[in-house]
């Protein structure tokens, strides 16, 4: 058979001991690059060439080279490239990719600062639009974390350059700082919350926050007063009447400092207090924590009367705050509450160092501790407003007369020997 009838040509270079085969491209009619047959005689080389032609292995490699040359030389726009990358991801050949033209070329620090900007953040706007509770103070604190810890940490790095390894390195960075586990976790969440949102909005391809192991938050046990010490505290002379009454209200109701600061005359009456607001120095009047107003029992008419008298002594008759300050439209500073408590504790014989172990929030724990064995958990939680999501869904918002009587009975039994009823 003449060699010209073969779908290949057999040649031998002077510097090689073996014959080469060059197959013909059926589309173009041109011969493809040669490949050694590994044979020293032409007859053996022809047989090997037919064998290579039959199994198709050489042709497959040549086709692959042609595809690679096409991809290398092709003029692909962003649409073509995104399609190709998406197809590779679909086939499991690619886990993620980053386009230089995408928004994730934005610097990490710039993104974080805007993310926690109350006026600009799309995250905050979406939370508020959908009825979720988020406060300006929280956003402000998160932004402070960004400036304090993460500005230098991330530097000029862009969102698209972030990796899981770099996110995990945040924990190594925070581990070296003399902070509580709670503070470390809060600082890190200033970043991870923003990254989760970026992933959900397809600003970054991968969720970089998966599988993180957080710092343990070992809270030290809160110091609470005994009933005997509480009685002694309210028996001594207080320097500020407002501080004494605020501490009494906190003890008897479990209310938070911000909720007490926000109290106005219209919130008190008929043996109950309507906890409809809280005061925050950054935001002013806002919703209570957890975003839910509540009514607490307050069967203490003498204290109620003193609260009304206190309001009458305010130099600002039209701003409504019972616990007034020296500035119109702003209630008393919460530091006055805790300073008054510690001063009273010292007057009972406690050292200044021991008194520092108590905070105004201690009354909330006092209330919960001494009423926990007198009330069902659900009644106590309704009184304090300290609810988890599951509890909010499980318990109804209404309160029956029988439940109110149970709360009042427990309050009177607990506090009758501490303060005048």
Mind explaining what this structure looks like?
The chain folds into three domains: 3-74, no CATH class; 103-200, no CATH class; 227-415, hpI Integrase, Chain A. Helix 4 (108-115) packs antiparallel against helix 6, helix 10 crosses helix 13 and helix 10 packs parallel to helix 15 (362-371). The protein is mostly helical and 421 residues long. A hairpin with a 2-residue loop joins strand 4 and strand 5 (272-275). Residues 386-400 have low confidence and may be disordered. A three-stranded antiparallel beta sheet has the order 1-2-3, covered by helices on one side. A three-stranded antiparallel beta sheet has the order 4-5-8. It has a two-stranded antiparallel ribbon with strand order 6-7. It has helices at residues 42-55, 57-73, 78-90, 108-115, 122-129, 136-154, 164-175, 181-200, 227-233, 241-253, 257-261, 301-312, 334-347, 352-355, 362-371, 377-384, 389-394, 401-415, and strands spanning 8-12, 19-23, 35-36, 268-269, 272-275, 278-280, 284-286, 294-297.
Topology:
Blueprint: E1 8-12, E2 19-23, E3 35-36, H1 42-55, H2 57-73, H3 78-90, H4 108-115, H5 122-129, H6 136-154, H7 164-175, H8 181-200, H9 227-233, H10 241-253, H11 257-261, E4 268-269, E5 272-275, E6 278-280, E7 284-286, E8 294-297, H12 301-312, H13 334-347, H14 352-355, H15 362-371, H16 377-384, H17 389-394, H18 401-415
Antiparallel strand pairs: 1-2, 2-3, 4-5, 5-8, 6-7
Helix pairs in contact: 4-6, 6-8, 10-12, 10-13, 10-15
């Amino acid at each position: 058979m003449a060699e010209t009838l073969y779908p290949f040509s057999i040649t031998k270079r002077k510097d090689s001991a073996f014959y080469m085969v060059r197959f013909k491209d059926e589309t173009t009619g041109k011969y493809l690059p040669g490949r050694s047959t590994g044979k020293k005689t032409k007859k053996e080389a022809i047989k090997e060439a037919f064998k290579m032609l039959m199994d198709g292995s050489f042709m497959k490699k040549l086709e692959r080279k042609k595809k690679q040359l096409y991809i290398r030389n092709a003029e692909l726009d962003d649409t073509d490239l995104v399609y190709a990358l998406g197809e590779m991801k679909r086939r499991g050949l690619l886990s993620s990719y980053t386009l230089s033209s995408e928004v994730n070329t934005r610097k990490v620090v710039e993104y974080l600062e805007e993310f926690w900007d109350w006026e600009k953040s799309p995250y905050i706007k979406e939370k508020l639009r959908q009825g979720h509770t988020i406060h300006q103070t929280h956003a402000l604190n998160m932004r402070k974390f960004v400036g304090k810890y993460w500005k230098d940490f991330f530097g000029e790095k862009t969102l698209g350059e972030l990796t899981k390894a770099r996110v995990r390195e945040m924990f190594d960075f925070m581990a070296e700082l003399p902070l509580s586990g709670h503070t470390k976790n809060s600082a890190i969440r200033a970043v991870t919350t923003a990254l989760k949102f970026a992933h959900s909005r397809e600003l970054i391809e991968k969720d970089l926050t998966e599988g993180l192991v957080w710092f343990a938050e070992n809270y030290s046990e809160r110091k609470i007063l005994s009933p005997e010490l509480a009685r002694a505290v309210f028996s001594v002379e207080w320097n500020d009447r407002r501080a004494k009454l605020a501490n009494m209200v906190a003890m008897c109701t479990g209310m938070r400092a911000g909720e007490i600061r926000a109290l106005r005359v219209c919130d008190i009456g008929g043996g109950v207090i309507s906890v409809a607001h809280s005061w925050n120095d950054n935001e002013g009047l806002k919703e209570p924590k957890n975003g839910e107003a509540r009514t607490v029992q307050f069967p203490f008419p003498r204290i109620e009367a003193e609260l009304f008298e206190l309001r009458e002594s305010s130099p600002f008759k039209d701003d409504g705050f019972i616990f007034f300050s020296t500035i119109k439209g702003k209630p008393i500073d919460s530091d006055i509450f805790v300073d008054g408590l510690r001063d009273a504790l010292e007057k009972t014989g406690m050292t200044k160092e021991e008194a520092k172990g108590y905070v105004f929030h201690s009354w909330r724990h006092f209330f919960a501790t001494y009423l926990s064995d007198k009330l069902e958990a659900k009644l106590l939680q309704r009184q304090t407003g300290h609810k988890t999501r599951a509890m909010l869904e499980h318990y109804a918002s209404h309160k029956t007369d029988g439940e109110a009587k149970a709360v009042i009975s427990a309050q009177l039994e607990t506090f009758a020997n501490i303060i005048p009823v």
